[in-house]
Amino acid sequence: MNISVAISARKNFRFYLYKPRIWTALLWTSETNSLPGYKPYGVRPIVVIELSLGSTIVQRVNSMEELEASDLETGAWFLAVGSNKLYARFRHKSEAPIHASAGEWLFPPAMLAAVSYFTDDYFFVRDKMPYRYAVLSDYKIKISADPHEYSRIKTNALNMQLLKTEAVKSIVSDDIIGLPVQVENTNGFPLEKTWVKNFTEDFDTITLKLQDQRSRYTDTVVDQQYVREEYRNQSDGLICMDEDTGKRYKQDAIGYCRAVPCDCLNGYAFDQQSYRKYRACYGKVEVDYHYSHKESPDNMGVEVEIENGWMVLKKADYAGEPTSWWTEEIPETLPSGIVVMTTLICIPNLVAHPPDTGFTIPKLEATPRKLRVTGTFHAERPNIVKVHEIFKYLIYRYAVVKLTDKDYNTTEIINELSAISEPIGIVISEPKALVDVIADLQGGTKYGWQFCSYKGLMTARVDLPDRPVAWEIRETDILNIEELSVDADSESFVTRLVVEYAKNWTEKTSSTIINPAAEEKAKMLHNVSQNRIVSTLLKNEADARERFRVEMADSLSIYPVVSGIQLQGRKWFDIRQYDRCAIKLSVPAFPFSGGIPLYPDSVWTITNVVMSTRDEIVTIDVKKKAA
Predict the structure, then answer these.
(1) At 67, which helix (H) or strand (E)?
(2) What pLDDT shows up at residue 122?
(3) CA neighbours within 13 Å on the CB side: how many for 85?
(4) String of DSSP letters for 337-376
(5) β-strands 339-348, 371-377: how paired?
């Protein structure tokens, strides 16, 4: 039985890009009314009799060559014998034929296409064989982050509904939780790697609750508590670590950090050891030592707490020199079993335990003085002050999924993050999810960035203000042009901006950058006051001023947002977050209307991307940002 169905080309008739100006719709087709020897349940083969464009019958041709050369004023379609694809070439009569964008060969929304067929939406055809969809739900890949909110990672989660076939039931059991699931399109191209968080089951379906691989870092807690029993006097074997230190977590510091507090490892050594040992992090510490006899804010290196503040200690010429500091190393074993050599800061007992007034012998049983150090941490790793090296270390040190080409686009991660060359540093002094540590890195650099997932691999993208324009999007490329609106984005601008840098990790304070002139200009422009504090991990004032400039630039004019732009076709699956694109918009916002230009030739930055695998529609949000 053949049924003629009239449908809206833009809404329901799902054309897929075959090549420029030629579109294909997946059909189960046959020149006869049956496939010999095959009678699937609930499905009948398709017989295409004719294709109409509005009231005009589109001509049928006998080959792809004829389709290529067809008269575009009337359009043409082609269906090979036994094929499962309907190819069509057409355009709206008011459009110039020089355009090659696939969007310009869509049916106009006011016109209808009609094909004669009968089928079941749960089936598709590959290599002339019909298959029933085991996946009943559409998978939407989300690559998203809020503008200016870099210190946040939005992982992708979804429920994937599967038809309860024997094959599905055989793989879904209790041990499927935690297993990887790779999502592919119908051509077998990997789109994203996920893992099973949970699953539910009803009469005829099983629903897998999936999350992308980055969510594993939410469950990865940087947890490394001291074990007091491991720290003993060599002479008598007694525990030499005090109880307060034993209750703390073994902190880690990476990169260039100021005033990192240290833990005393032998506070209970009493008179068995003539000096105290302090630990700041795993690995090697390269002390940034600047010292003069005069009090100066530039004095730094190793500092000991005194009654009215902190005192910089002189670097010793030899181990054991009075009133000075020196270093030694001890081996430490990581949870992975790898042994690293850790630098300890050593100071004499008379510095750690100063005697009371009138006495020459210190009270060694008293709590030793606090110590802090400024410098480069994990200095055994080259360029560790750069964000890409810190990121690599964190993945190597803590991540469940290691940094390999199987799960990461390692080349892109290095290329992207290497664009941020300014020195930074971070201290992990308490139990914290790895995903939160990475989020702190995202918001703490000169340019914000995102740890994201793309085409099945985890990667990174930097919000570079000077990234080249990668896409040209015309009105005819946008499926929902008549539904779009422009938002002035009045909630994202800022009138008073404070950028923090040079963080003091002991006192939790930072130096700051402000600009009263820019603040006054923004207030006069917007007539309201909106504040933002950006806490960075940057070392230098010049780098902080660049971050200030980038953050403030968008607030000195109205930079709008357009959300929900729909683009259809596989080529748009290459679009990326933080890509810059040229979009021409006009009002009234209808294609072929010749409306008034709105933001003509504007360059926009893509902030959010959602890819729908079933109908191959990519939805993007864009923001017009300052150059």
Answers:
(1) helix 64-68
(2) 42
(3) 12
(4) S-EEEEEEEEEEHHHHSPPPTT-SS--TTSPPPPEEEEEE
(5) unpaired
